[in-house]
Amino acid sequence: xxxxEIQSERIRGYFIDAAKELxxxxxxxxxxxxSVAEKAGYSYATLYNYFKDINDLVFECVKDFQAECEDFxxxxxxxxxxxxxxxxxxxxxxxxxxxxxxxxFELCFLEKIRGIGERNELTELIYTFLDRLCEEQWEYCIxxxxxxxxxxxxxxxxxxxxxxxxxxxxxxxxxxxxxKEFLTLTDSVIGKILE
Length: 195
What we know:
- By secondary structure, this protein is mainly alpha-helical.
- Helices cover 76% and strands 0% of the residues.
- It is globular, with a radius of gyration of 19 Å.
């Protein structure tokens, strides 16, 4: 890379990091061209040299948060055996990530996504994220005849929707009432799905 390209990537990264910090701390409502630029240490007009608008920047943040989550999941699931044990470990780590970063959860699952990236592209990116994290393990289960393809697909859907429901109720309504109860419930429900 030439020096100018390196500098351009660095400045772009400053804007992404600033936006992510605002999103994590205060949510989407705190993110504006001016607030991000101020946090990054640049003029708001400079932001437009690197992103077409604030929605483009937020879309990049979602992708960045997913990369962080993926790294988090990989670090937590290294020792899990392939197959359903690994799917269970991945799902648990995925849940842990969103509990640890509720602002990221809010951005991905609660905010309206009008205008952020290509709507269908962003929706698909978020909707299929858990599936993509577990993809290799679902394929392993099928290839090792742990489950048939149709059953694996059914369980994949059940897992995705159940995990989202559990997270939504816990993050928004604190149901169940304690984190310990929540972990017990999620572990039980995930186990039932993967039987």
